Amino acid sequence: MRKALLFISFFVAAAAFAQTQAPSVKYPRVSQKSSLMQSIGTTDMTITYSRPGVKGRKIWGALVPYGAVWRTGANEATTIVFSDDVSINGQKLAAGTYSLHTLPGEKEWTLIFNSVSNQWGSYSYDAAKDVLRVKATPTAASFVEWMSFDIPMLSTDQATVALRWENIAVPFTVNSNTTQKVLAAATAAVAAAKADDWQTANRAANFAFDNNMITEAAQWADASLKAGESMGNLWLKARILAKQGKKADAIVMGEKALAKKTDKDNADFAAEIRKTIDEWKKM
To answer: Is the pTM of this model over 0.85?
Structure first.
């Protein structure tokens, strides 16, 4: 009985103590966490970092010293993830997750891709774990209070990534080699397509046309038409002919595309074809 009373007393006391504890508070970070995700063709890149502020301080050569390894942000080391193999400023880097450290300099920076992605700052940084180092040139830029990464230039194959803080930008290029990878895959897909499969070659031809590869586009468009004619692949062939400077042939092919229209074809698409053909006729 005595033991039971002691247990009850302990339980009541513990409950009362718990009720007197202050509730936990989640405080915001001084340097807020951010993430930039960008597709470069068929490759995904994600940069995760914390954004320190200038706050009236001199940054370069002072708060961030020249010649010392920097976490490239605040709090945890900045990380960068690539879903496929890429090239950084022309140097190859395998798909994976890396911590991104930097060696800032007044006229030249070194970008460091380190295999240890999960680390606080650069305090435990180990150069032996570096996978790639590349040089980058800082440029004068408009003032930015909170450090950021942005993508000022983007194409199917390449993105320019720029680190921005205070009054400089540090750009570097990421090349995904998407065009060559897609061309190789499309070539294999067209070769393996069934005799009546016009869509596989048509998709390949559209990709080539959109990327100004007219020779490949023409070859695949012809393969698509051989498998079966539709308003879509006939119109693509017309646009290829126009791109080749064969406007009369393009007009004939465009009219043939309109004649192939079915109830399943989009009316707005057909109207756009008609508008373009009429413009060609005026030239």
So the answer is: no
